[in-house]
Design a protein that fits this description.
The chain is an alpha/beta fold. It is built from 11 helices and 21 strands. It binds zinc ion (ZN). Zinc ion binds next to loops.
Length: about 375
């Protein structure tokens, strides 16, 4: 079957990358059946992963992020020793990009707990919040919002059509293969002149995104612009700097007559080159983990990072019994386990551990480890991938 680009509908060429074996790993660090194949679109600069049939069951049963408590969140970054969680950073970026005057109608589309909008409301209590998700499972969180919110589940309330000033979406479009339908849904909710504001991962800044099986879209600035122009949006802003490893995108719904640009050949060639480079990183990843294990011998090891990289490393080990623990600074992971090993804070790493496999985005790994004060002067060997 010919693969078609989700953004521009061109036929896609042969795959850049295929995962090893018959299992693929997801955002929730679950293994699912199937081989992921990743392709590049030489028309719009999009990168795309084939959608696995087993994803249907995965979304129905397992896809649930940070749904243990109101506060549970992913650690975004440690800045000068202070932990900044993701919703807090997303809210401050959003408030720097949109001026939230009283009466503004703001819909969080596919909102889960809507942690970001909830934080914005503590600063701008005069805006009118609306929440939508395809499932009922987050309703108990919405009921605890500090002010009145309107929500609907499964399908958006038709009374909302054409009335929204702002539609927000955080980390959703990377999961959606039918982008045309997704954009139609957003446009139907917006007023003409309304703003669509969204975040999607930037795999060029965090290569993990390339191999996550449930991320079918890996956008570039050019494929984002193409997608939005194609669906009647203008005044497109794509910010690659303000949020680590994400594209923060803002565009105005103009309707018919929004212009179309196509990316130039040089830009496309550069994107393709970068995508090939990322494919190469993952093609050799498993071999590098195994080689290091062989070098360590019988010493006890820890894996730093309980996120995607750490979990992925743990699936590749020849001797998983040599892992004493996982180490992570996210306080919401205390008491949890991976492969039945505890997730501990850096200061609680057992004395027996001599080697640490660093499971972090390679762009930031050395600086994150270098900033762990509790490990200064300890004789630990680190392996960076
Ligand atoms: Zn395309």
């Amino acid at each position: 079957m010919i693969a078609i680009c989700n953004v521009c509908e061109s036929a896609l060429s042969v795959s850049l990358y295929e995962s090893l074996g018959t299992a693929s790993i997801t955002t929730m660090n679950q293994m699912i059946e199937g081989t992921t194949e990743v392709r590049f679109c030489s028309h719009c600069g999009h990168v795309q992963t084939s959608e696995l049939p087993s994803l249907v069951e995965y979304y129905a049963n397992e896809y649930e992020i940070n749904a243990t408590s109101d506060e549970e969140d992913q650690l975004y970054k440690v800045v000068d020793g202070r932990k900044v969680y993701r919703a807090e950073h997303q809210a401050s970026v959003l408030m720097s990009k949109i001026s939230f005057r009283d009466g503004l109608r703001v819909l969080d589309y596919g909102c889960a707990k809507s942690a970001t909008l909830k934080k914005v409301l503590t600063r701008h209590s005069g805006i009118k919040p609306f929440l939508f998700d395809v499932t009922d499972r987050y309703v108990p969180f919405w009921e605890r919002f500090p002010q009145d919110v309107q929500w609907s589940t499964h399908t958006p309330n038709p009374d909302w059509f054409g009335t929204m000033d702002v539609v927000l979406s955080f980390y959703a479009l990377e999961h959606v293969s039918d982008l045309t339908q997704a954009l139609l849904n957003v446009k139907r909710l917006l007023k003409t002149g309304g703003i669509f504001y969204f975040l999607v991962p930037n795999m060029y800044h965090n290569v993990a995104d390339f191999v996550v099986a449930d991320h079918v879209n890996h956008f570039s600035a050019s494929s984002l612009a193409y997608l939005l122009q194609r669906h009647g949006f203008g005044e497109i802003e794509v910010d690659e700097q303000i949020h680590d490893a994400a594209f923060v995108v803002k565009a105005r719904f103009i309707g018919e007559g929004a212009g179309m640009d196509t990316p130039d050949g040089d830009a496309l060639a550069r994107l393709r080159e970068e995508a090939l480079h990322i494919a190469q990183y993952w093609n050799t990843f498993a071999a590098r983990v195994k080689e290091y294990e062989g070098m360590v011998g019988d010493g006890a090891m820890a894996i730093y990072g309980a996120g995607f990289y750490g979990n992925f490393i743990s699936t590749l080990l020849m001797f998983p019994e040599r892992i004493s623990c996982f180490v992570d600074q996210n306080e919401y992971l205390r008491g949890k386990r991976i492969m039945s090993k505890p997730i501990v804070a850096p200061q609680d790493i057992p004395d027996e551990v001599s080697h640490v496999l660093v499971g972090l985005n390679p762009v930031i790994a050395k600086s994150v480890i270098g900033q762990i004060e509790q490990w200064q002067g300890k004789s630990l060997e680190f392996f960076y991938l």
